[in-house]
Amino acid sequence: xxxxxxxxxxxxxxxxxxxxxxxxxxxxxxxxxxxxxxxxxxxxxxxxxxxxxxxxxxxxxxxxxxxxxxxxxxxxxxxxxxxxxxxxxxxxxxxxxxxxxxxxxxxxxxxxxxxxxxxxxxxxxxxxxxxxxxxxxxxxxxxxxxxxxxxxxxxxxxxxxxxxxxxxxxxxxxxxxxxxxxxxxxxxxxxxxxxxxxxxxxxxxxxxxxxxxxxxxxxxxxxxxxxxxxxxxxxxxxxxxxxx
Length: 244
Fold this sequence. Notes:
Helix content is 40%, strand content 30%. By secondary structure, it is α+β, with helices and mostly antiparallel strands.
């Protein structure tokens, strides 16, 4: 009877102690596994690639002003035809040339306009070039002197100042190679880090592609203004590699 009472008191205590010890062992193993799983490094992979624009948009704008509406309209019409003829002479076809509607403003018709203006009518027109022949656009944009000699008042207004804008429409064709180069760059850095740390580089844990920048090739670091034919693609991707 005494032994039975002793067993009833001691045995549960032994079981509880054993349970705590086993539980502590599993918790310890879990923490160790967690620490091991968290052994990784974060690396940024940089890749750059020089490419050439494959499309251009060029707006040739011109202006006229005068006291007679019909005279201003006729001058603008003649200017538009002169610009179109110049472009055809440079080698552009009709599919690449778009004649835009003329716009004429009567300054005296404005609600708060002056009633004694010397040139009552001001007008403007434009011819738009859309072409994949970017080299032709670049050459033609530097050969507009004959138009100025003819009296066509080309406008330099706007953010581009009358210059062509160059774009990269085939971006998706070069994107895979750029990202592959970023991965290669990051892995090389990670392998060097692992070697220096006395570890072995493991599998890729996580990756973030990052934003791909399209820059002008004139040395500027801002996003492309569209003024240069040459472009530089740059991507900084983030990778996490496991360490063994």
